[in-house]
Amino acid sequence: MPQSHRPHPPNSSASSRLLTRVLRPTPLKPALLLTEVLLAGMLLLTLVAPLQAETQWDATTIQTNLRRTVATLSTDIGERNADAPLNYLRAAAFISDQLALWGVPLESLRLITDPPSPPVIVATFGPEPSPAAHNPAPLTKPGQPTPSASEQPASSTPDTAPHLLLCAHYDTVPGSPGANDNASGVAVLLELARLLADAPPPVRLQIALFPNEEEPHFMTPASGSVRYAEQLAMRSALPLRVIAVDSMGWTGKDAGWRAFMNFSKGNLTVGARPESRPLADNLTQTLSRITDTAAVVTRDGAFWIDKSDHAPFVARGCQGVLLTAPGTLAYPCLHLGCDTPEKLDYKTMEMTVHGLLEFIAQQPSPPPHRDHTETLIDSGDKQGA
Ligand SMILES: [Zn+2]
Questions:
Q1: For position 289, what pLDDT does the model report?
Q2: Alpha-carbon torsion 338, 341, 345, 348, what sign?
Q3: Do 108 and 121 meet the contact criterion of CB atoms below 8 Å apart?
Q4: SS3 for 211?
Q5: Cα 172 → chain centroid
Q6: What does the pLDDT read at residue 270?
Q7: Which pLDDT belongs to residue 42?
Q8: Which residues contact 10 (CB under 8 A, 6 or more apart)?
């Protein structure tokens, strides 16, 4: 695919806005002594120049990193599944090593033992849970009776739960190096993790890389995302919102397929069921602005919108969407040996990283306590609320 090596002028200001918000200091209390205000002002003045210099959006570096990750997973390592167990373990090790390199708090969870599979890899960002989160007061809506323990929604301790979970699978179907499906999604999330390590998000956030998304494991107990959703539900720590990033790199231009799939002319597509429409609309709005593409919510119930790692979380009451490239299902190399790195559009992937960063920066500040509980209570009687 032809690539542009030009910088992205429209993105620079958006990036600055994002990082300004992320780095915004806590408001000063009125009682603060004047001298302290002056000292703080002087300190800020010394910091402003270097921070601004470091927060410019470096499209070239990000595209280079995305290319390297895709090449490592799909060319150097190759297919990643039970048919190629060594490759599968190498892929997991590569992902963990990258995250560790950036100093990201990391869990490597061996949740699938039958048959044994590489781990679910989870990186956590943002504010620590409050001490009270381990023993939360019952949450009710005004005027409602206090629910008994058995009536509490599974995710009733959102202080410990991530506000947002971004996930991608790192396995492939047998015989495919899986550059688009899904080294592309892993690359986008690893790059996001690198940037978040330097500028922590305003909300608690997790990035999860899952094994066993592809058939025959999809939505079975041997799937990484199914097991992780189950584990979070048991810990009453399900996320409020989930974004699965899957097959980002082949944007395709087949007009017939686009019409058939109800896709727009954009380079990104957000797929969601009606109950996740608030998240889908919110994400689509941000991505459309940042990426200069026409991301859309597809028609409700389209068959492909459940086909990724957000599905087990949606089944448990979380809002969840699939973020993908609209050409994915028309990709001539879908699940084949020719799904190789040179087919991908790294500029779109880089803009996706930028759009997701902006989306993260826009998330409401903690605590998400009331929001989460009320969303779960309301789901079913309020469509699109
Ligand atoms: Zn996939």
A1: 84
A2: positive
A3: yes
A4: coil
A5: 19
A6: 87
A7: 47
A8: 292
Residue 190 CA to residue 178 CA, distance in Å, equals 16
| Positions of the chain with pLDDT under 70 | 1-55, 130-159, 253-266, 292-301, 365-385
Distance 257 CA to ligand 1 centre (A): 19
Buried b (16+ CB within 10 A) or exposed e, 273-300: bebbbbbbebbbebbbebbebbbbbbee
| Residue 318 CA, ligand 1 centroid: distance in Å | 20
Phi/psi at 331 (nearest 5 deg)?
A: -60, 120
Residue 143, number of CB atoms within 10 A of its CB: 5
Ligand 1 centroid to 308 CA: how many Å?
Answer: 6
At residue 99, the pLDDT reads 97
The pLDDT, as a whole number, for residue 316 is 96
Measured in Å, residue 246 CA sits from the centre of ligand 1 at 5
Q: Determine the Cα–Cα distance for residues 164 and 240; give it in Å rounded to an integer.
A: 6
Q: Which domains does the chain have, with CATH numbers?
A: 57-128+153-378 (3.40.630.10)
Distance 181 CA to ligand 1 centre (A): 5
